[in-house]
Amino acid sequence: MTVVQAGLEAVPLSDLEGMAWPAIPTPIASRMLSLQQQLAHSQWWPQEELRRRQFRQLAPLVEHAFRTVPFYGRRLAAAGYRPGQEITEEFWRGLPLLSRVEVRSAGAAMRSTALPQQHGPLSETSTSGSSGTPIKVVKTAVEQTLWSSFALREELWHRRDWSAKVAVIRGAGNATTGERLPNWGPPLAGIFATGPVSAFEIRSDIARQAEWLRSENPDYLLTFGTNVVFLCQEFRARGWSLPRLREVRTIGEVIEPETRRLCREVLGAGITDVYSCEEAGYLAFQCSGREHYHVQMEGVLLEVLDERGRTCAPGESGSVVVTPLHNFAMPFLRYELGDIAEAGEPCGCGRGLQVLTRMVGRARDMVRLPTGEKRFVWQSTAKLAEIEPILRYQVAQIALDELEVRLVAARPLTPAEEDAFRKAVIANLGYDFRFRFVYRNDIPRAAGGKYFVFRSELEAPASG
Amino acid sequence: MTALRAIAYQGPIVKGVSEFPRSPIPHTAFAKVAWPALPTGFAAQLLALLQQMEQSQWWPPERHERLQFRQLGQLLAHAFAWLPFHRDRLAAAGYRPGLEVTPELWSRVPVIARREMQSLGDALISPQLPKEHGAIIMDSTSGSTGVPLRIAKSGHVQTIWAAITLREVLWHRRDIRLKLGALKRDPEGRSFAPAGRAHPDWSVPFATVFPTGPAALLDSRSTTAEQAAWLLREQPAYFIAFPTLVRDVARYFLERGLSLPSLKGVNTRGEPVDPELRELCRRAFGAEVADMYSANEVGYVALQCPEAEHFHVQSESALVEVLDERGRPCAPGEVGIVVVTPLHNFAMPMLRYALGDLAEVGAPCACGRGLPVLKRILGRARDTLALPSGSRRYARIDMKSLQQVPGIVQFQVVQKTLHDIEMKLVTSRPLGPEDEEKIRAEVKKSLGDHLSVVFTYHDEIPRAASGKYFDFMSEIPA
Which of A188, A189, B262, B299: disulfide with B235, CB 3.0–4.6 Å? Predict the structure, then answer.
C-alpha cells in the first residue's frame, strides 16, 4: 500500500484503507505535512518577507514573555516595552542580549507561569554541554512539532533514499555491539516507510566503531562532526573504505572545511551538516549541493552581531544570537549562543533563507584511556546541569589517568557536588580517572574562537 | 543540476515582494502560533494532500502511472468484491483479486458510455464502503441534454476534489485575500439581481484552510446588463463564470467602453473556451482566462497550466485516457474521446467512463510538470456535428463573421437531422433576406455545404438546466 522511494518521491503512509495515493495520513502526520507545504513555499520568499513574518510572530511571544515570565517582566519593562506594541527592528536592537550565565542564574524565573493550554505537554532537556555552561531547557509540544517538521524539510532538501541503509553512531544507550532499529525513527517513520537503522554507541573505542562501521557498510552515516575525523583517521590508517557510502550526516559540532576534505578523501562521501542547539532547535541546514547553511527562519530569528552589537554584513563574522519563535514555555529572546558564524551572501539556489557560510564554536578533543582506547567525548550533561553553582566548565586531560576540571562558579562546589560531577564524567568517559578541581574567573576560547569543553593536553593529543 | 531540479520541484522562484501574491498562510489552530501555522483536522488533511501534489506534479509521467495503477488496484479489488457488473467485466478482461493491474490488463477493460451508465442506474452503486470512507453522498448531473445521471460519491472523493481546488488557486497565484465574484446558478434562489449575495469568505475549501477575502455571488439567471452592473458595483479581483456568460458580459463592457480595473483574473469551467474568448477578456478586462476541465460525476479532469493555455491532467485524482476510434491511446496532436477513471470513488466506481468529450492530446509541457497535457478540450461529443457518413466532427462556428451582421444578440445552431440546421436567433432588429443569406453562407462554410438552414426568431434562447449554454447542439444522439 505504501511506496518507498528516494526522498523526494516518497509517498506518505496512508491511514485510510483504499487510499494508497495520494495518501490520507494520520492527523499528526497530516499536520507535519501541512507544515511542510508551508515551508516548501516560504523558503523561496524574499528574505525581507521572511523577516517581516518573524517580527509578526515575535509580537505574541514578547507579550507572553512580558506577562508570564518573571525574568522578562523586568527586562522588557526596562527596555520600554508596552503590551500590544508592534515589535520593530529598532525596539529589537535595543533589547539586551541574554547570556547563558544569566539564564543559569535566573533559574525558574526564566519559565512561563501560564503556558497557552494547547502548547503542552512540556518536556525538559539540558543543553548538550558543548558550551561548557549546561542549562536546562523547557520545551513545548508545539515546538517539538516544529522541530520535527524542520527535520523532515532537511530530509527533503537532501533527497535521501529512505529505503537505504543507515548507520548511526551517537549516544545510543548500550549499543556497544551494535543495535538494529526497525526504521529511521521520528519524524520520518510516522509519516513515511523507511528502511532499518543500525546504531552504535559513540562512547566506545574508535577502533571498535570503525570495525563495526566497516562490517555494516551503510549507504548513510550519521554521527558527530569530530567523530567523523576520528573515524577517517582510523579508516585511513587501516586502508579501509566504505564502498556503498553516499553521504555522511553530521550533528552537534562545527564542521571545518578540513573535515569535509578528509571525509571525501577517506570515505568517498560528502558531509551534510546540521547546525542546531537544544535551546532553539534547528538553526541552519546545509544547502543541497553546497557547503554553506540556510537559517531556518520560520523557526528561529538568528542574528550575527559584531562586537558592538551591529548586524554583520556578508563576509563578516560575529556572535550568534538566537530567538526561537515558538517556545512559549521558556522564551529565549536574543540569546547569545556562544558560537561565532560568518554571514553569507544570498544563495544561488534562490532560497530567501538567510545564509551562514561557516561557524566557529563548539569543539572537543578525543580522550585517550590508559587502556589504550581512544574515544569521542560524549557530553551527557543532565547531571551537570543540576549542579547549581557551575556557570561554565572545561574538562582537560592533563595525564593519561588524570583530568582537570576548570570551573567558573558562583561558589566553590561542595564535596557532594564535586562527587556528582566526577561520577557524571566517569560515566561518560568510561574510566575511573583521578580528578583535580580548579576555579577560574574565565575560561578563554582557544585560538580561532573554538571553545573546547573537553581538551586534551597530553603531549601527543589524540584529536589529530 | 541538483539545485536546478530543486527549484523545478518547488515551483518557480518568487523574485520580489511585488511579484506576490505569495502562497497564503493557513489558519492556525494554536493560540499565538501565527506562522508557520499549525492547522488541524480537515485543513491539515487538505494541506497534507497539497504537499504531496506539489511534489508529484514534477514527477515524470511513468511514476504517475505506477502510482495510479497502485491506487487502481485498490479500487478494482473493491469493485470486483461488491459490484457484479464490474466483476463480470473485470473477470472477462483477465482480472483476478490480488492480481497487479497492468496497462495491458487495463486496456482490455471495456469503455463504458454515459448512456450505459444511465441505464444501469443504481447497479453501479456499491453496497459497502471501505472503513472510514464516510457516508455515501448522492448527487446527480444533468448535462445539456437534461437526462440525469445519478451519482454516488464517497467522502474522500470530496477531499481530493477540495485539494485540487486549492492547487488550482496556487497554480494561478491568485491572491485569495482579495474579493471573488462568482456568477452561477444559486439553487437556493437567494442571489438574484440586482443585489446578488455577499459572502464573508471564499467558502469551502478555501476558507477551511486559509483566511480569504469576501465573495459576491450573482445568480446566472440575470441579464448581461445586470451582471455588468453587479461587476461594476462589486469590483471583484477574480470573476468566475461559464465561458458564454463571460463572453456576453465582456462584450457588453467593450461595447459601452466600461472597465473593471480591479479584475486580475477570469476563471471558467463547464463549457469550451476558445482563443477568441481569451482575447476578448484581455481587451475588455485586461485579464487572463484560467480554464478548468471538470465534470460533476468524475471531479477534476484537467486544470489549465499556469504558464500556458493548455491543460494538465489531474493524475492524482483520475486516470484519464484519450482514445482514438479503435480504442488506442492518441498521440500528441490527435483528437480522441476522453475516458476517465476517478481513482477514489469507492461508492460508485467508474472504470473507463467515456465522459462524452473530445480532447486533443498535447506534447509534454515546457513548465516541467509531468502531468499529461491536453492541448484542447473540444467539448461534448454530442455537441459535434453528425455527418451523413455516420461519423461526427467538431462543430465550430466562426463567431467573428456572425458579429459582422448587426443586430444579432444571441444565437444557437441546432442540428435537427443529418441535413437540416435550425438557426435560432435573438435580434435587436428584424433581419432581411440579405442578412439571412450572409449567415446561411457562414454556417455552411463552417459546417458543410450539404446542410440546409432555416431561421427561427426568439425573445430569448434559454440555457440548459445546468446553466450552461451551447452555441451548437446536435439532436442526433452521439
Answer: B262
